[in-house]
Amino acid sequence: MDVAKPYDCMDCPLQECRGLRPLDESQRAYMKAIKQGERLYERGDPILREEEQAKHLFTVLEGVLIRYRSLEDGRRQIVNFMFPGDLVGLQGAFDEPSSHSVEALTSARLCVFRRSDFVHLIKENPRLGYDVTWLAAKEETALEGHIVSLGQRNAKERVVFLAVWLLDRAISTGVAEEGNILQIPVTQSQISEMLGLSLVHTNRTIRALDRENLVQWNQREICVPDMEQASDFADFELSSKGQRPFI
User: Fold this and answer.
1) Long-range pairs for 16-20 at CB < 8 Å and ≥24 separation?
2) Helix then strand then coil, % of the chain, to nearest 5
3) Cα dihedral 144, 146, 148, 151 in deg (nearest 10)
4) CA-CA distance, 44 to 102, in Å (whole number)?
5) Level-2 CATH architecture, domain 25-144
6) What's the pLDDT tens digit per position in 35-74?
7) Dihedral Cα 214, 216, 221, 223, nearest 10 deg
């Protein structure tokens, strides 16, 4: 659903997010000139569909999304989670159909841009163009961590890695407050789709981690009682206090 009164880019709420690097006035003015509006989505709403030619890119203003690939028999692999400041649609070639789907995990608010305008953005605003490249590179880094989980980590390590990664990203983007709890409706089915585990194995692993006081995970929230202990267990490096760009 289109937003009747979108935010003015000059007063973008992402400017106040401690984990994101604020845009200067000229950059905000440039983005204001090419912004097409904003859209609201509810949990489960599709944003991009696999094999469709997307005409737009989106910046996440509020909420959390999931990116996934589907098989013909209905199974799917969740590839990544997307948080405020992330650029949606960047993960595929500009002139090809989307290789993946994106849907809202929570209610979400997204800025809308024409894909074609980003060709001009890269030419006309090198700093913003560099930031687009940085975001793409950072996405690759996140995927490397998830691939290592699928290939090398055992079930407990996979679940703990995902929990601390989600909480770390949520804190840095303002989705969660400083602390050890993230309120997010990730089901055990979605965890299994992300981690390549059966639903039964996922359930047993979560219960075991709860008993060991490493991770407490239900359908409404994730609690990591000791982030440093959990990070060491999963070989996860907590993010620094540096800021990431957004578009």
Assistant:
1) 16/174, 17/84, 17/85, 17/173, 17/174, 18/172, 18/174, 18/243, 19/85, 19/171, 19/172, 19/173, 19/174, 19/239, 19/243, 19/244, 20/84, 20/85, 20/173, 20/243, 20/244, 20/245, 20/246
2) 40, 20, 40
3) -130
4) 9
5) Sandwich (2.60)
6) 999 999 999 999 999 888 888 899 999 999 999 999 889 8
7) -40
Place of tokens 């687009």: 132
Domain boundaries, the chain: 25-144, 149-234
Helix (H, G, I), strand (E, B) or coil at 41: strand
Render pLDDT for 216-246 as a digit per residue (tens, 0 to 9).
999 889 999 999 999 999 999 887 667 889 9
**Which residue is listed with tokens 């490096």?**
237
